[in-house]
Amino acid sequence: MSPCHWGAVIANSITPDAGPVYGMGFPSRLNLGKKLKRQLTALLPAVAAVALTVPIGLATATPAAAAAPCGTVVSDRDGSSWVSGVDGVNMRSGSSTSCAIPGVIYAHHSLDYHCYTAQSGATWTFIRNDTTDRQGWVRDDLLPVRDGVRGSRVSCNI
């Protein structure tokens, strides 16, 4: 028989219930498909049960992790004041660089930290600049370290 003929014989030998083809020890594709389908069908209820038992809180942001939209002003929850130590840092009207700049912080300015929130993996502190009487949001990695922390330690709970 020619090689083409052997391919036709093997292809015609595969049936839904066929076992090994010509003693080669390979199960047919259809048997593999049925086995896989049975395994997936058995596994599906377990996957669904796990998905339903995951707490809803893991899928949603906590209040402390919410961003402060442009124009957000918050009350003083922290009560701490610090001399800036940073020079030329923009304050923002919300916790995003796309928000307006109501003021700039310089090294000699006295700052009153109100609280913090989170935006895209970074924390932002709402600050009142006591030197210029301006207020706004500053990304914490732009603020000086005080007692091992940058920015406020109190959540705004927005």
Write up this protein.
This protein is α+β, with helices and mostly antiparallel strands and 158 residues long. It is built from three helices and eight strands. The chain has helices at residues 3-13, 29-53, 56-59, and strands spanning 80-83, 89-91, 103-105, 110-119, 122-129, 134-139, 145-146, 149-150. It has a four-stranded antiparallel sheet, with no helix packed on it. Strands 2-3 form a two-stranded antiparallel sheet. The longest helix has 25 residues, at 29-53.
Rounded mean pLDDT score: 74
Question: Which stretches are low in confidence, meaning pLDDT under 50 for 5 or more residues running?
Answer: 4-24, 54-64
The rounded Rg comes to 32 Å
Strand content: 15-25%
The best one-word shape is: elongated
The helix/strand order is HHHEEEEEEEE
DSSP summary, beta strand count:
8
Order of strands, main sheet, comes to 1-4-5-6
The helix content is 25-40%
Task: State the end-to-end CA separation.
Answer: 79 Å
Strand count, sense and barrel status of the largest sheet are: 4 strands, antiparallel
Q: Count of helical segments? A: 3
Q: SS-based structural class?
A: alpha+beta
